[in-house]
Amino acid sequence: AEDIDLHLRTLRRSIAAFEERSFTDLEPLIPALFHTLALIWTHSHFYCRPPRIVTLLTEFCNLLIDKASVYLIPEELFKMELEEGMDRVRKAIQVFWAFKRSFQQHRDKLIPTGPYSRPGLMVKPWDFSSELVFHRIDCIMERLHMIE
Hints:
The protein has helices at residues 2-9, 12-20, 30-43, 50-72, 82-109, 131-147. With 148 residues, it is an all-alpha fold. Helix 5 packs antiparallel against helix 6 (131-147).
């Protein structure tokens, strides 16, 4: 319980920032979030297992999707001016891609000789399927590409 509390406490600032900012302002926060998640993965005794980190990552995906839904206003998307609607769709795709790209960049760094390695401890890679994390985002991005 102490391990969980200690490591989830480090996410409070990221969660608050994600909740407070508008969807269009989330992109700069994403690399710091993944850096924190990578540190949790390498330092926590509880969150160093794929099902547990996948759950955390999925929760952030859900938060991102919720923010995108508020930003896109699905029931109004086809009623607004064409350019405004297209800008919103493109921005949503851009933020989702930034999220996925940052995941992959940090996944690539989680190797024994990478920046998250620690003397005497083996860094376990994120060797789980990204589909476990991004299933909902991928479905939404597919719909956004169709709309675009």
